[in-house]
Amino acid sequence: MKWYSQEASTILKELDTSRIHGLTGTQSQERLEQYGPNELAKEEREPAWKMLLKSFKEPLIVILLIAIGLALASAAYDFFVSGDQGHAMASVYEATAIILIVIINSGLTFHQTRSAQKSLDAISEMRQHHMKVLRDNNWTSVSANHLVPGDIVSVKSGDFIEGDLRWLKTSELQINESHLTGESDAIQKTIEVVDDDTELGDRTNMGYSGSMVVNGNGIGVVVATGMNTELGKISGLMQDVDDQKTPIEKSVHSLSKKLMIIAAVIIAITIGYDLVKQLIQVGSISMDSIGGISATAIAIAVASIPDAMPVVLSIVLTIGAKMMASQKGLVKSLSSVETLGSATYIASDKTGTLTKNEMAVTRFLANGKVYNVEGNGYTPIGDFIRDDGEAADSKDYQRFLEVAVLNNEAEIKPDNKQNWRPFGNPTDVSLVVLAAKEKIKRDELLEDKGNRDIDIIRIFPFDSTRKMMTVVIKENGKYYSLTKGAPDIIKPLAKFAMVDGEAIGINQVADDIETIMLEFANDALRTISITQREITREQALNASSTDLERDLTFLGLVGIIDPPREEVKASVRKLTEASVNVVMITGDHAMTAKAIAKQLGIIKSNDARVITGREIEEMTDAQLFDEVLDTRVYARVTPEHKQRIIKQLQEHEQVVGMTGDGINDAPALKAADIGIAMGINGTEVTKDAADLILLDDKFTTIEKSVESGRTIFANILNFMRHELTTNVAEVLSLLLGVFLITSSIGNVTEVTPTLTALMVLWVNMISDSLPSFALGYDEAESDVMKQKPRDAKQSVLANGMLRRVLFRGGVMGGMVFLAFVWAAMQGFTVAQSQTIAFLTLVFGQLWHVYDARSVKTLFDRNPFSNSRLTLAVGFAATSSILVTLSPFFNNVMGTAPLSMTMYISIIVISAIPTFVISGIKKLIWNRNQSNSAQTLQLDSE
Ligand code: ADP
Ligand code: MG
Hints:
single chain, 941 residues, 34 helices, elongated
């Protein structure tokens, strides 16, 4: 049906809906079933089995397949050629065991990945757009995917249009539909019927799904949803949540690649060395020694690949996203989790984020007199007391208050407990409350009581670039344009001022007004001038806002208190301690901004530099570049200025988080490293552009998210350190065996590997990977918020990581090798010697994991604070001992039971390296601490 060429009434009838009541609950339910949800078809989620198969593409799996192949080949050789049945069966068992371990590990990984995916889904569900819909006589907020044809919806600037609409009422409604038409200018919408053959771009009475409301507001009826919309017809499948690799995932990926190359070289050298040695010593190469050599090579290959890392990494990042969401910070992608941890500047809007947004007029100037306003909250009760003690005179402020409420769309209503509740723009609410204290109400003015007849003709809503709002009215046959806005913007536009009922030239009083305005601002009050102007009918109907907003007559000025949020002060302090710079950005006057910044601890003294929007405009990029690092307050800025500030901070290589709420903020949010949108008061457009949504609109949530980001990153480094240490220890203990054992020791020959391939596999996939996962759940180390932000471009191996890994891994590997040699010298069997080496490695790692949890040492954290870790370590320890006792595993892994004393000795001895190294480090650490404490003392003396 061509909705655009039909009368609205026809359409409403056709869709069986009502402009007054909307659809009923039952109707909408039925239609939802009939038409399906209002969303574009989604790409099929990968089925579980496919995800599982994908994990088999990893290089480790290839190596394991080779190992399985070799084991089966050797089984076949034994079976058919040498006839050694027992040996053949052992090889078959070995192949089976590899497969079993791989399956257990994949199962675990798969389970983790699935639950991670579920939390990501839950997070993206929370990001659903909402629309204001009329149902059963009530305007309610409905999730966009529940819209159905026939729904009556209301949109305003900053909303997305969901579903195709036919407009029923529009007011200055402008819409950007460039995604369909390519036309980047906003289109003015009306309700007039257009011709049957009108092109999509010219159908001015329609709104199309996916367009953005950039100005004004409107009411429309939904005519098509989901794949039936114009967007649905042209769009392919919707993109799922973006699963791009985060920077750290990329760098781990490239690290893994490098490690693999190193491993390949080591293996080649080892095999070459072994073969040459055989040839020189024996003169030929026996089948037996090939078996030994390939067993060692496979063990080294398995040992050198940090296979758990990529998976654990993405899961740990997801844990981070979940953690942030539970603290009311919603991230769009996993990269944001990481970026938040490295933020160096957080630039925040003042109003509503740093302040409570519970605005109240406490002082005003009207008719040349300053009044103080009494009363509490939104309750419209309170007297006006003149500053100079004279009696109040309603003639001073009658007209001023009328204009304040007529140029206003906010309301207050009592709830069932008779508490007054605000509706609409908080600034405007404060004016409504002010006027209501004098019994002046918008509804009553518009009711045409007595001999007054007032009608609203047009509304130009407030926007943060103009910093003004204008309403055109018709009053008793005359036309007026009512303008209110920032006093310094109004000042050059005003021609007259109303004093004692007469309009006099503004110049006579401009200085006095300015002085009072500054006085208000100094007291941290937000200021607004209120003006009016008589205009012609022609102007009333057609003039643009620029034409109306001049030659104004000044009626008065209000000072609005907007108390800072109490908890913000602590957050500012925490961020400052964490070397994250907090910057306030506001549309308010410089003085107001400064007063509040000081109350919040963003600036320390009144001499702090404040840059205003006008100054930014006059500065070159180079000048701004010189100032951005040290400036903490920007006042009277427009959203365009935000982008320049971000750009210059980024030129300084800073990682910038920036908040925003209005539609004009969207480009700045995109430009910022972390765009932050308000979940409650933000527009859908800004939420869409943001990387982080504050579900509670609170600044403190940013601080918590930064902390979570840092915690997660610290956890990632911890588990990487742990994983890599294991790999180094394994490879080293094997290599030492190859190169240092040149003749038989006891039962051990020169081709016996220190550890069997299956032992290495066990350590990597079971005893080591579970505690690694658990590290991801660690809470913040006490001082994550006392350190400097991480340098985002730095390699994960920087800051001593590589040194620590090589050193710890080296000591551990050496220890494992020594245990092996010792056992051989004592005359233990091969299996027992390898088992001793195996358990030394397992327990060495299980002790080490407690050290890896901390950037400092294991003595600096409560070892039992992470219950998952306790469980994982307990499980790893028990199961690793069990595989040495069970005959089945003895058979397949080459383990052997040991004596009770032996087990206890291994557990105790394997603790030595970790405790000795950590102990020494702790001592050095303490000495340094007391040294630096001394220097501090000296400094302060
Ligand atoms: P912020 O969001 O940083 O508080 P705004 O852009 O909302 O800044 O406000 C900037 C200035 O515009 C305010 O200081 C005030 O003078 C004026 N102003 C704010 N809201 C309104 C409004 N609803 N009507 C008229 N003027 C307003
Ligand atoms: Mg604002």
